[in-house]
Design a protein that fits this description.
With 372 residues, this protein is α/β, with parallel strands linked by helices. It folds into two domains: 5-216 and 335-365, Alkaline Phosphatase, subunit A; 219-328, Gyrase A, domain 2 (2-Layer Sandwich). It has 15 helices and 17 strands. The strands form five sheets. Strands 2-17-8-1-7-5-6 form a seven-stranded mixed sheet, with helices on both faces. It has a four-stranded antiparallel sheet with strand order 11-12-14-13.
Length: 372
């Protein structure tokens, strides 16, 4: 492979940002290649979608159904941010098996830990190697706009030092959680991204580049506490936020999807009826139906998957206060994502979901895994 395939996942990059904010380099990419609006995975959260892309598979196969998991069989809870949770091969592992070199650069270190097995070089802004700091400077805080430009610059710098066949760069969505598409800071953030992408293409003009997102973003105005609502009907339950991670400044662990675990399976039908009649709940699905509809792994879900309407998030008022101006994701209303590509051999009709970017890498770039 003479030039790398470069995949960029911009966390929370709702297509509305592209429509509202000038991005001349992304526009030029689309003119030379293509732009389509596709779909991400449900639940629309970071870990589910990043893993779906890098494995080119659905959660039913790779096993990441949430950012956070309550394993009732073991009686333990986990942040799903370690490679031990993955049940499917990643593009980095396939590249390593073929003797190819890959580069992974992330803003959040949780994604470096989750995805990096097999990567030749892995870098995060939260745990940067000294040689990267020497080359591009200290990374800005994780809760900043500038950290995403650092991710792109770190990737470009690493590519200037040594050759890679596969490059995957993934940012953080603090900016999108904080500012809507029409806010001036969003225009500044998109400009930082656009300039960074332009610099990468300027350095590697023959490369194929594919840019997409894990999920979109919506304004939220209402919080529902589902265990409290179910308790009105005498139903005991625990609710585990799908969006929950360690980056609480982004979203306060308030998102538009949640897994409900019932104390008694005999309460299932009554719980479904109660949840479906709540204002703010768009759908409540038993685990088997939700797993089939969204191609999820049932043993890593609750008894019920609850999805919110566009304005609602799920949370516990005893643990968190609904922040003013909250923007978040997780529901089916944040699954529309842009897919932009340029370079030789890219057929836009093949890209309908963000994981199709990973499918392209596996099918057209990486060789099959050698037979044993």
């Amino acid at each position: 492979m003479t030039t790398p395939i470069i995949v960029v996942l911009i966390d929370g990059f709702d297509p509305e940002y592209l429509d509202a904010c000038p991005a001349p380099n992304l526009s030029a990419m689309a003119q030379r290649g293509f732009r389509v609006d596709g779909r991400g995975m449900t639940p629309s959260v970071t870990n589910v979608n990043n893993v779906s892309l890098v494995t080119a598979s659905y959660p039913e196969r790779h096993g990441i159904t949430s950012n956070y998991w309550l394993d009732r069989q073991r009686g333990e809870e986990f942040y799903m941010e370690s490679g031990e949770f993955l049940r499917a091969e990643t593009m980095f592992q396939r590249a390593a098996a073929a003797g190819l070199r890959s580069l992974l650069v992330t803003a959040k270190d949780k994604l470096r830990r989750l995805l990096s097995d097999g990567a030749t070089v892995s870098i995060s802004s939260e745990e940067p190697p000294g040689w990267v700091v020497d080359g591009v400077g200290e990374p800005p805080p994780i809760y900043s706009l500038e950290v995403n430009r650092w991710v792109l610059d770190a990737g470009r710098y690493a590519m200037s030092r040594e050759p890679f066949d596969l490059v995957y760069l993934t940012t953080t969505d603090y900016a999108m959680h904080t500012y809507g598409p029409q806010h001036p800071e969003s225009a500044r953030h998109v400009a930082l991204l656009d300039e960074g992408l332009g610099a990468i293409l300027g350095q590697s003009p023959e490369s194929r580049m594919l840019v997409t997102a894990d999920h979109g973003m919506s304004d939220k105005s209402r919080m529902l506490h589902l265990p409290g609502e179910l308790a009105r009907y005498g139903i005991k339950a625990r609710a585990v936020p799908v969006i929950k991670d360690r980056y609480v400044v982004h979203h306060s662990n308030l998102g538009g999807s949640i897994y409900v675990h019932l104390d008694s399976s005999a309460d299932l039908n009554a719980a479904l009826d109660a949840l479906r009649n709540l204002d703010g709940v768009e759908n409540a699905l038993p685990v088997e139906e939700a797993a089939q509809r969204f191609r999820l792994m049932p043993e890593r879900m609750g008894d019920i998957l609850v999805l919110a309407d566009p304005a609602t998030v799920f949370g516990d008022p005893g643990e968190v206060t609904m922040p003013p101006g909250l923007r978040s994701h997780g529901s089916a209303h944040e699954t529309t994502v842009p897919i932009i590509g340029c370079g030789p051999g890219l057929d836009p009709t093949r890209f309908h979901e963000n994981l199709d970017v990973g499918r392209y890498v596996f099918e057209d770039i990486l060789p099959p895994r050698p037979s044993l």
